[in-house]
């Protein structure tokens, strides 16, 4: 979220996709009404610390940790939000005032809060709990939007692969000791994972397409989805056809393993320390690529998903239901789950992390796997990922010699995290790199402790560094390196 986008939301004001809450000391009582309504409609932006008229009042700083904790724990509490839903709040500074921003995506399921179902309209949050026609329409809309929810009344547990249930229990236990699935029956697992639903049109209940793709026997999957497959190709010598191929037409759990094995067969691994631990850099990077290829695709479309290893790059593509077009910016994007039920299942067995982390990890580990490599994630009807296997061309920037260039570069790179007081602090450092925190505090008329906080923020973002001692040293701006 950049400061420009935030100001755009404030100018647009409240509407079907934007909601403001004052929340100076604590969450408003109706905060989860709005969260529930956004999940049930088409998603939206929730800003805490903002009055209804768009005026930013901010949140009392001492209250922020409790509010963030309350948001996260309540969203994962089935008593408060049913079914629970994970989202990641952002803490933003806007001209010295702190606000909490949440992007809430549309969910594939119907949610309720404290026993009430809310929908969103132009006037705000609408309680539709006792309006059966509106509730029915809501379920119908979800079912038609997300193909993973399609119900197969004659699909039974006997059509699932019992070996997959055994593996799922082990994977879940490995991810979390004492995971509830460990002691559940097969039927309890599919219900717990949201793989058993009621078809509102026919009134029949049953396992879903997501259940078939995750746990079904191969013949069950092909019966439900005849065109289902993922193609893994190696094209290094024979560019017209392929040097090696794995035509994968099986469940998503085994598909993950086969794709990772194909990558391990044809791409080198590199020694890499994360903290004090040695990890497989190749596996850490391509775990994200493979998971995205399997999870975030529109299964109803017959377009085959592909993973292609070429001499200079790894290239993937799959059919999508895009919520944007063009290159994804890791510092400024809103994650949207294409198949939330399947994604949540993969999270439970340790194949993915929280929503949005995959994009950040792809950029992080790509540059480590191939020094200087810049991946491309391109959203459209066909979602494409390109991982260079050679360093990207390095463009040496001209040194920044005026304040406007420095400010614009930091704003473009860090967005809203570059608050107004951090900006003023950096400007003084740019003008005189020998200033102490006390000198800056006097010029800005704020406390030295506040200045130290802004300096630490700028250091943490990699914008400045301190050269020499605290008393006789100087500040160095790093943007021109």
Structure description:
This protein is an alpha+beta fold and 481 residues long. The protein has four domains: 3-130, 2-Layer Sandwich (Methyltransferase, Cobalt-precorrin-4 Transmethylase, Domain 2); 146-224, no CATH class; 230-388, Heat Shock Protein 90 (2-Layer Sandwich), CATH 3.30.565; 403-477, Winged helix-like DNA-binding domain superfamily/Winged helix DNA-binding domain (Arc Repressor Mutant, subunit A). The protein has 16 helices and 22 strands. The protein has a seven-stranded mixed β-sheet with strand order 13-12-16-17-20-19-18, with helices on one face. A four-stranded mixed β-sheet has the order 1-2-5-4. A three-stranded antiparallel β-sheet has the order 9-11-10. Helix 14 crosses helix 16 and helix 15 (437-444) packs across helix 16. The radius of gyration is 25 Å and the shape is globular.
CATH architecture of the largest domain: 2-Layer Sandwich
Amount of helix: 25-40%
Task: Fill in the CATH topology of the largest domain.
Answer: Heat Shock Protein 90
Termini separation: 25 Å
**Can you count the beta strands?**
22
Strand percentage: 15-25%
Show unreliable segments. Answer: 393-397
Instruction: Count helical runs.
Output: 16
Shape summary: globular
The first-level CATH class name of the largest domain: Alpha Beta
Radius of gyration: 25 Å
Structural class: alpha+beta
Strand order, sheet with most strands: 13-12-16-17-20-19-18
Average pLDDT figure:
85
Number of domains: 4
Q: Strand count, sense and closure of the main sheet?
A: 7 strands, mixed
